[in-house]
Specification:
Largest sheet: 2 strands, antiparallel
Order of helices and strands: HHEEH
Helix content: 55-70%
Structural class: mainly alpha
């Protein structure tokens, strides 16, 4: 009788642990998704600011390095029609409010 009760308790405990692990993993996934979504939204906002603040410069279809402006910050971009986060660390720092890891600091 004792072994049967112990086995039943262990089974219930294992099921409870599995449910807790599943719930914890779901919460972690949700938090990561929210954080990623917020970061991508910030990058989209920065790119929109880049385009709208520099519409005249971009409309001229510049071929070489070009200086762009974002508020009080200016940055030289090697390919202004194909900017990358790495090419615009000062611009994205002001727009996103944080430095990117690839900014070199």
């Amino acid at each position: 009788m004792f072994l049967t009760e112990a086995a039943l308790q262990l089974s219930v405990a294992a099921i409870g642990a599995a449910v807790m692990i599943h719930n914890t993993n779901s919460l972690i996934d949700d938090a990561l998704a929210i954080g990623t979504g917020q970061y991508i939204s910030n990058v989209a906002s920065a790119v929109n600011t880049y385009v709208f603040d520099n519409m005249t410069v971009l409309a001229a279809s510049p071929n070489g390095p070009t200086t762009i402006n974002a508020g009080s910050v200016s940055a030289t971009v090697a390919s202004p029609l194909h900017p990358t986060v790495q090419a615009l660390p000062q611009f994205f720092e002001q727009t996103l409010g944080q430095r990117t890891e690839s900014a070199g600091d």
